[in-house]
Amino acid sequence: MNQFNSPAAQGAQTDMGLRTFMMGTYRHMVLAMIVSTAVAWGFGNYLLINVPFEPTSGLSSLGLTLRSPMAALGLTMGIIFGFGIVGRKLNTMSLSSVKVCLFGFAAIMGVWLSSIAVFVNPMIAAKIFFMTTAAFAGVSLMGYVTKKDLGTFVKFCFMAFFGFIAINLLGMFIPSLALTGMADTVMSVVGLLAICGITAWETQTLKRTYYATVGNAEMAEKYSVFGAASLLLSFINIFSILLSLFGNE
Fold first, then answer.
1. Residues 143/25/13/149 CA torsion (nearest 10 deg)
2. Which pLDDT score is estimated for 55?
3. φ, ψ (nearest 5 deg) of residue 51
């Protein structure tokens, strides 16, 4: 028997292909994260601090706009519709177009994160970043190795996370309804657990996507790039929630 045609050899090739696919996804995610970080730093330090400041808030007028309820709502709706449109057209889009979408999305998230580059202590931001990296790596690894189908479980995670977003948006539009104290902490923890569950499911879904695209290298890479955008969004969400929980230390 030809050892290279044996089931064991084919399985090894498949596993190697899966590792290559996942490493490519994380590589694209890291590159996109670098774009977000560079845009956040540049936009924050060269634009936010060079426009007039509101004396009552300590924020620039542009910073206030970025933190406004309408900006938050617009970003949320834009992400939902943007991911939906790209996901539906992924089969017909070119690989370069998908990469443009990834890095364009990363730049937009960098603008949204730009106030951190100016108003958050760099040491605290660095500590939260390493906490986020550890949390993300842990839940993503869980999604990669688990044999349990996370599809049913993630429905509750999505409901909890969208509830978390809705409550925060409501509090921005109607400050009197904003959660404070322990209630805010509990809701943040719920949101954190929900997005961690979603991240694990996304990783598991990427594995299944790879097996569905075996033999079509271009389609596999397009899904890899698209998956990197999804994982980047999850990373940023984890970072933002951890920052709200521990950023005032």
1. 20
2. 43
3. -125, 160
CB-side exposure of 21: number of CA atoms within 13 Å? 31
Instruction: Give 64 or 93, the one with higher predicted confidence.
Output: 93
Question: What is the per-residue pLDDT across 110-161, written as a single tens digit (0 to 9) for each?
Answer: 988 887 767 788 889 889 999 999 999 999 999 999 999 999 899 999 999 9
Closest CA to 229 of 113, 82, 89: 82
**CA gap 173, 243 in Å, rounded:** 21
Helix (H/G/I), strand (E/B), else coil: 60: strand
- 57, exposed or middle or buried, with CB in 10 Å at 0-12, 13-18, 19+? exposed
Q: Report the range of poorest mean pLDDT among 67-76, 122-131, 192-201, 238-247.
A: 67-76
Instruction: Indicate the burial class of 10 (C-beta count within 10 angstroms; 0-12, 13-18, 19 or more).
Output: exposed
Q: Specify which residues 127 forms β-bridges with.
A: none
Contacts of 18 (CB under 8 A, 6+ apart): 207, 210, 211
Read off the DSSP letter of residue 54. P
Domain boundaries, the chain: 3-246
Of 87, 128, 106, 163, which is closest to residue 240 (Cα–Cα)? 128
Torsion angle of C-alpha atoms 64, 67, 72, 74, degrees rounded to 10: 30
65 or 190: which carries more pLDDT confidence?
190
